[in-house]
Design goal:
Distance between the termini of chain B: 81 Å
Shape of chain B: elongated
Largest sheet of chain A: none
Distance between the termini of chain A: 21 Å
Structural class of chain A: mainly alpha
CATH topology of chain A: Cytochrome C Oxidase, Chain A
Strand content of chain B: 15-25%
Helix content of chain B: 40-55%
Oligomer: heterodimer
Radius of gyration of chain B: 29 Å
Number of domains of chain B: 3
Number of helices of chain A: 15
CATH architecture of chain A: Up-down Bundle
CATH superfamily of chain A: Cytochrome c oxidase-like, subunit I domain
Strand order of the largest sheet of chain B: 3-2-1-5-8
Order of helices and strands of chain A: HHHHHHHHHHHHHHH
Radius of gyration of chain A: 23 Å
Order of helices and strands of chain B: HHHEEEHEEEEEHEEHHHHHHH
CATH class of chain A: Mainly Alpha
Structural class of chain B: alpha+beta
Strand content of chain A: under 5%
Number of domains of chain A: 1
Number of helices of chain B: 12
């Protein structure tokens, strides 16, 4: 198939990557960008864990510490997790639905190339200061609550970075929706699509719905700061709590934007290695849609302590715990898929099983946090930190890493080193629990989040957590090594790659040719 | 894996646990929420434990099935995969079960929340105002000791404050209640219903004392209500000489010093509370007298150094050099070296949109006059003039 297209003029070198409209190239760009951001955001986390290793202020200024927590959150959410799933979507969705490319290839190029500039604008203020330790990056938490964020003297950098990230996400989503709805091969009905395609379709709608809300919030911040408006300024008749409502109306769907694609990845991996069809395909689709819908009507559970009327607290409690129903259905379906299968435990499967177990732990603490009365004790403590790292690291990130191992042979044509990658898995899976599980305990004992120092009563678990953090951070360098060595060589992969794999991407050769499915495949 | 091999592994794990056990016992590896001393904190704890156990039971069931599958349904056992992949009955059952569990959780949540938010019929009303980075307490009404009008600031105590400076070299484990101690604790009587009204002066803070079961945001432009009653029975267990102390921290990121604005509540017997109110009122009279007299320059500078260290040095630094650009230097500053009216104005009224608070509502006129005089005559700012409390009063 690819032979017909050798006459196309392929730019090489830097021009290939700058001007590319090929979904595979752009997918690769997204993935490398997100991995770079993962290492940058991870290094911020290392600073946090190093300062918190012992009680007392040892390493950094409190403002620098706040800057680290803020940028760690922003870089991981907008730089690492979101672009990584867009990268997987770019690589895989056209191949999974039998399309030759994305529907809007030039916009695809643009939505990627905005990202490095957005990241630059976000991180630049860190280096504006007399010296690095007095860097002037944002230091108001990744949730950038007003009025604290209004005190930041380089707010415009932050606001425009968010705007650029939002534009990129919206364009990416439009592209994914247009591709899925218009470019499926004949016979690929919606209810035949692989679940990864389904979860991304729903994610894309979520993104289009909430990114403009975020843009509105930061624009109001901008005019409050520089043009004398008072949207969030109580002294001018504005409302600081309005900010939180607007932010979390974006922010809650945002957490599903990060997790839904990983739900999809895991739903691809488990059937492959259990050699058994996904249990309850239709209910998985409906559960994903139900989660997406509920994500719009639960936002204020992030702000139970702002002093809502009791009726509001009750409503948001009921709506929030309802999310446990479709989520439980998903976990049961994954479990039922494994049940009576014939499982093997190659690296992608290990990450997927760890995802199911550890994400469920994050789901349990989510249920606990949803109950308003006890949430008053949990709110803004390390218990919350532990909760959302279980769903975002051992959830979203584990899903993405599993997906990378799953599709890496298809992308590169080479098998990764199974021994090393299993080592990567086991070190990560153990250290991530050493890192985050004790944070439940220190949170329940009363340690607030976002503090650079603490009473010695919290010292022992913080020390344990820091050790876990350093090991988990370092083990991702092993991941980098494995990926690079797989790109460079290794045992040749077959087109099927995995014995139990089903789906169109496994019908094309490995590595997948530059152009695939220019003639639509036949779907039975 | 053979049974013998499994036993061996278990035995070695047990041996490791025995070795580590004593080491763990010495350290503080606490695990759970404290039950607290109020009806609220008790229901919070009970609800927390109930939901936790539900999660543990569901978790053990689900993870048990996964582990069973991993052990018995693996290809290396020579199994052939089953072909089932759908069952409406099963799907309906496992949709209904979680739903039923949620209803079981929702019922006690509703009753507890209604009780938690019942702020009616309080005995004492106290307004807690969050400042960057300290708390202001004002007794609004008081049916117990007639303390209405008592008002004071509460901030991190001196020892913790010195120890927490970067590279202080102090062993913080030797500091009494490091980061959880204040100069002036809030004082309330046991067994009385206290209504806490929280608000924020500059940014959002959050007033949290775990043992009292209260966490409520302190938001500019809002006055939030919450309440607690310290139960006599719980108090009796921990009190010493008619006093028990409960500690908490600001729970909402509020800027550079967010980690350093603790909350300390001293819960005392009714008699002790009445005595405390009397002392506070006497101190207030003395402060008012200070603000009415005329001070000498030396008195002002001497007193001003104390006021500055406590209220200004966190941002503008003891050296007066500040931390530009967030916190400008006072040494050689245009405002400090310029006309005294402007200097008084910015201290009394604050600077909106920055961390510079309106100190006119926080400090006495005498304190402000002293601090301004100190600033104008320190670090080479040889202005030579001084501010009198009467000038501050006029600037309000």
């Amino acid at each position: 198939m690819s032979d017909n297209h050798q006459h196309h003029d392929h730019p090489t070198g830097i021009k290939r990557w700058l001007f590319t409209t090929n979904h595979k190239d752009i997918g690769t760009l997204y993935l490398w960008f997100s991995f770079t951001m993962l290492l940058i955001g991870g290094s911020f986390a290392m600073v946090i864990r190093a300062e918190l290793m012992y009680p007392g202020m040892q390493l950094v200024d409190p403002n620098f510490f706040n800057m680290m927590t803020t940028l760690h959150g922003l870089v991981m959410v907008f730089g690492a997790i979101m672009p990584s799933t867009v990268g997987l979507a770019n690589w895989c969705i056209p191949m999974m639905i039998g399309a030759p490319d994305m529907a809007l290839p030039r916009m695809n190029n643009w939505s990627f190339w905005i990202l490095p500039f957005a990241a630059l604008m976000l991180l630049m203020p860190m280096f504006m200061g007399g010296n690095f330790m007095s860097g002037q990056g944002p230091a108001f938490g990744w949730t950038f609550y007003e009025p604290l964020s209004g005190q930041y003297n380089k707010l415009a950098f932050f606001v425009f970075a968010i705007h650029l990230l939002g534009i990129s996400s919206i364009m990416g989503s439009i592209n994914i929706i247009a591709t899925i709805l218009n470019m499926r091969a004949p016979g690929m009905t919606l209810m035949k699509m692989p679940l990864f395609v389904w979860t991304w379709l729903i994610t894309a709608f979520l993104l289009i719905a909430v990114m403009p809300v975020l843009a509105g919030a930061v624009t109001m911040m901008l005019t409050d700061k520089y043009f004398g408006t008072s949207f969030f300024n109580a002294a001018g008749g504005g409302d600081p709590v309005l900010f939180q409502h607007v932010f979390w109306f974006f922010g809650h769907p945002e957490v599903y934007i990060m997790i839904l694609p990983s739900f999809g990845i895991v739903s691809q991996i488990i059937p492959t290695f259990a050699r058994k069809k996904l249990f309850g395909y239709a209910s998985m689709v409906y559960a994903t849609a139900a989660i997406a819908f509920l994500s719009f009507i639960v936002w204020a559970h992030h702000m139970f302590t702002v002093g809502m009327p009791v009726a509001g607290e009750l409503y948001f409690t009921y709506a929030t715990v309802m999310i446990a129903v479709p989520t439980a259905v998903k976990v049961f379906n994954w479990t039922a898929t494994m049940w009576k299968g014939a499982m093997t435990f190659e690296t992608p499967m290990l990450w997927a099983i760890a995802f199911v177990v550890l994400f469920t732990i994050g789901g349990f603490t989510g249920l606990m946090l949803g109950v308003a009365t006890s949430d008053f004790q949990y709110q803004d403590t390390y218990f919350v930190v532990a909760h959302f790292h279980y769903v975002l690291v051992t959830g979203a990130l584990f899903g993405v890493i599993g997906g990378v191992y799953y599709w890496l042979p298809k992308w590169t044509g080479n098998m990764y080193n199974e021994k090393l990658s299993k080592l990567h898995f086991w070190i990560s899976a153990i250290s991530v629990n050493v890192l985050f599980f004790p944070q439940h305990f220190i949170g329940l004992q009363g340690m607030p989040r976002r503090v650079p120092d603490y009473n010695p009563m919290f010292a022992d678990w913080n020390f344990v957590s820091s050790i876990g953090g350093f090991v988990f951070g370092a083990s991702q360098l092993l991941f980098l090594y494995i990926v690079i060595s797989t790109i460079r060589g290794g045992a040749k992969a077959t087109s099927q790659v995995w014995e139990g794999a089903e789906g169109l991407e496994w019908t094309v050769p490995s590595p997948a040719p530059y152009h695939t499915f220019e003639n639509p495949p036949l779907i039975k | 894996m053979s049974v013998i091999k499994t036993m061996k592994i278990l035995r070695s794990l047990f041996a490791v646990a025995l070795l580590i056990g004593p080491a763990l016992a010495k350290a503080n590896y606490g695990l759970n929420m404290t039950r607290g001393v109020t009806a609220n904190s008790h229901t919070m704890y009970d609800l927390h434990m109930m939901v936790l156990w539900i999660c543990v039971v569901v978790g053990v069931a689900v993870f048990g099935v996964i582990i069973y599958s991993i052990i018995y349904h693996r290809k290396s056992k020579g199994v052939t995969p089953a072909s089932f992949h759908e069952s409406t009955t099963v799907e309906v059952i496992w949709t209904i079960i979680p739903f039923a569990i949620l209803v079981a959780i929702a019922v006690p949540t509703t009753t507890s929340l209604l009780a938690y938010e019942d702020v009616s019929n309080s005995d004492i009303d106290i307004k807690a105002t969050g400042w960057q980075w300290k708390w202001e307490y004002e007794y609004i009404s008081d049916k117990v000791g007639d303390g209405a009008g008592v008002r004071f600031m509460s901030q991190l105590d001196k020892d913790s404050d010195a120890a927490r400076k970067p590279h202080s070299g102090v062993d913080v484990t030797k500091i009494d209640h490091y980061l959880l101690n204040v100069d002036n604790p809030l004082v309330v009587p046991v067994g009385k219903k206290v209504r806490i009204l929280t608000t924020g002066k500059d940014v959002i803070h959050s007033w949290w004392v775990p043992a009292l079961g209260v966490k409520r945001d302190a938001i500019p432009g809002y006055i939030n209500e919450s309440q607690f009653t310290v139960e006599k029975a719980d108090w009796d267990k921990v009190q010493k000489d008619g006093e028990a102390i409960f500690r908490g921290q600001c729970a909402e990121l509020c800027g550079r010093e967010h980690g350093f604005m603790p909350i300390v509540v001293k819960v005392v017997s009714e008699d002790k509370y009445k005595d405390w109110v009397k002392t506070q009122k006497g101190a207030a009279l003395a402060a008012a007298a200070d603000s009415n007299k005329v001070w000498t320059k030396d008195e002002l500078i001497q007193h001003g150094a104390e006021v500055y260290a406590k209220n200004c040095a966190a941002c503008h630094q003891p050296s007066g050099e500040g931390l530009p650009p967030m916190f400008p230097a006072l040494k050689g500053s245009k405002i400090v070296k310029g006309p005294i009216e402007n200097h008084i104005h910015i201290v009394v009224k604050g600077k909106p949109g920055t961390a510079m608070a309106p100190f006119g509502t926080m400090l006495s006129d005498a304190d402000i006059a002293a601090a301004i005089t100190y600033e104008r005559n320190s670090w080479g700012n040889n202005d030579g003039d001084m501010a009198q409390p009467s000038q501050i009063k006029a600037a309000h």
